[in-house]
Design goal:
The protein is an alpha+beta fold. The protein folds into two domains: 8-55 and 235-403, 3-Layer(aba) Sandwich (Alkaline Phosphatase, subunit A); 63-228, no CATH class. Helix content is 37%, strand content 18%. Strand 2 (76-85) and strand 3 form a beta hairpin.
Length: 404
Amino acid sequence: PALGGRTPLEAADTPHLDALAERGQTGLMDAIGPGIAPESDAAVMSILGYDVERFYTGRGPLESYGAGLEVQDGDLAWRANFGTVDPEWTIVDRRVGRNLSDAEAGELATAVQSEVQLEGASFQFRHTLGHRACLVIRRPGGALSGQVDNCDPAYQRHGAFSVALADPGRKVLEARPLDGSEAAMAGAELTNEFMRKTYEVLSAHPVNRRRTAEGKMPGNMILLRDAGDRLPRMPSFQERFGIRFASLVEMPVEIGIASLLGMGQVPVASTAEDPERGYSDWAAKTLASLEDWDGLYVHLKGPDVPGHDGDAEAKRRSVEQIDSFYFGPLMRRLDGEEFVVAVTADHSTPCELKAHSDDPVPVLVCGGLEPEGAEGFGETEARNGWLGRLRGQDLVPKLVSLSK
């Protein structure tokens, strides 16, 4: 409604994406499958050509690995958020108002690691970016199971996967085992112990006292979700497709996936503080990396954040920044060159929902295909595109065949 019935992508001025769509073919894509509102990790694995039903072991192990934590078989690994709760553990904000600085979060994480002790187990806790963190619990006396339900009520477990809820509850959930195994029961017990003890440490921490005095939300709770007890074992990207790929990614979970697939890592900085400079730098590194690799996996986070915040205008601006400062330099440099490029998203994040949805995402492929002459790149136009409706898992095999 804020954009006259158009999506942020349709409302954005995107001459470079529109040109790619006109020269290629468009369609819709279900990252995993119809009716599934995926999290980023499972969606990315699928889009990169891997069967998530076969390989996926939970977001916790992937993100922890990407954050540099050691994850062994039998460890209980979680994705974590710093959140804000009241004394009854009712959630006030799942992301501490999105204004917890990296310095503040780092201090809080250090306090958790140094001041919290678990009975009969050790743990690694690490802040990553903003409100995000990772937790790995290890029990020397025996393996733990990832069959432990989420404590963050915004996500519901479905097998190994979690699905974002459109209307989640507000109470922090107690960790509970999803099966009757001792390893799952022990994992749930240790998780609940961790949450109780970290709440005490964080509530009394000077960082949170200072934030409260300044009228800001305290980061006094660790919200845990997406447990797993081992890393996925997947063939490398080169083994699977016969081509050498590198990645330009900034989030720990995507770093973890790319690393496990044996992709090269091109270091990039966050674009959040200065999108114009950030995307220009990413474009320069993309062009430079094309000299050394057969292909690149590039993951731009920008528009997802305002989607979760429900800010359609900010999401539109973010799309325009990507078009101008990332795709603009690419198109100018690659004009006249032969290339195959796909542009898509790992999930939909409608501003009305402020959460991931099961809507299919638009996809364009340019290079090696007869142009359909699309008038622009957007959801409505893509519904009638010549690519039809794809599964995420089928995208990379299609691109590989077009590049040969």
